[in-house]
Description:
nine-stranded mixed beta sheet; eleven-stranded antiparallel beta sheet
Amino acid sequence: MNRICLAAFFVLFARTLCLGEPGPVLRIPRVHRPPVLQEFIDGTPREAEVAVSTFWQMDPVNGAPISQSTTAYLSYDDQNLYVAWICKDDPEKIRARIARREDVMFDDRITINLDTFKDHTHSYWFDVNPYGVQSDGITTDGQGDDSSWDSLWYSEGRFTGDGYVVLETIPFRSLRFRAGNTQDWGFTLCRFIMRNNETSCYPHISRDRLPQWVGQFGSMEIPENISPGRNIQFIPYEMSSIGKYLDPEAGRKGFNDNRVGLDAKMVLHDAFTLDTAINPDFSQVESDQPQVTVNQRYEVVYPEQRPFFTENASLFKLPETLFFSRRIADPQFGVRLGGSAGPWNVGFLVADDRAAGDALEESDPNHGARSLNEVLRLQYKFGHQSNVGVTAVNTDFASSSNRVGAFDAREQLGGNWFAKALLAYGTTRDLEGGHSEGYD
């Protein structure tokens, strides 16, 4: 049965009247010496910085002043953005643990969110708890948070007699942004006080305008030329193993296993990332968390954590999942390109998968065959948070295939009202020659 999924909301006021006033502009000063955490603890004067000390609650009382005194100090140099936080509170009431990375969502913490392309839709987040434990990820308005994105940055945290102090150091080379003499980014600074269920931000993020989050950011200006540089990373590996075992029928037997591969990443024109993989090794990727499958009547879904697939992963997300990268289990090669140019977002991926043929019995004529997976995504942004996009997904394995084409649109009508539309058409041919097609 053909279906067209369309969820639309309409408002009574004109769209231009509902988008809200532009947020404040924060001009960040350059320093020649990186700030030090102890300087903020001791109150030692620093070279230069801009201070933010006015925060408003989003929760629990929308628009009320923050319940605990908080000041953030921002500066930058050629390599890094620095954000130091002085958070006043009763140390006995602060909730924080020396936890594993990413496991701080139930702790008191601070965060800076950066919309480096100022598209009012995508942002990086950098959370730190009072012990300096990090959590990072990407937020996309209309899609939510993606914590699978990880980058290299630095944090320190320390308890004091009247609260805690945190210093974040975020290298520009860990971010993606357009080249230019002046950078104009969207941003918000927030503090989470968990015992009060409190989230307070600068500029004010209103709960009344959610799910707009990035769409409510203020503006942060870095006035002098900076660049993440032409990052080029090559990670070769070689792994060998030799083993012997006793076969009850054939006696002592042995095996040799050798594996060589290469992972590479290149940043092109400060905004596009090209990832390539040849026989990639995913053995260092964090293991999936256990899931209870007793009486489960649906497929287990695990989040993507493999670095090759996580860069710009939000580009491939749609209101309905048309591409799930975890289905590519054992690629021998892969190429992935993603980034932004003006109003355009571009995502492209091609990879094979040996697992498709290896899963078949050796007697099967398709045993050892590989699948070929291709994805192309183009998105055009306009207005405040509106966009249209097209997506093509193709998978071929032996004589079978699956092809999907989709058109999607998101129109920001104003405030927290928006409309979404998705139209997809797919065709499938199985190994026996059967054929099906339809709209969704």
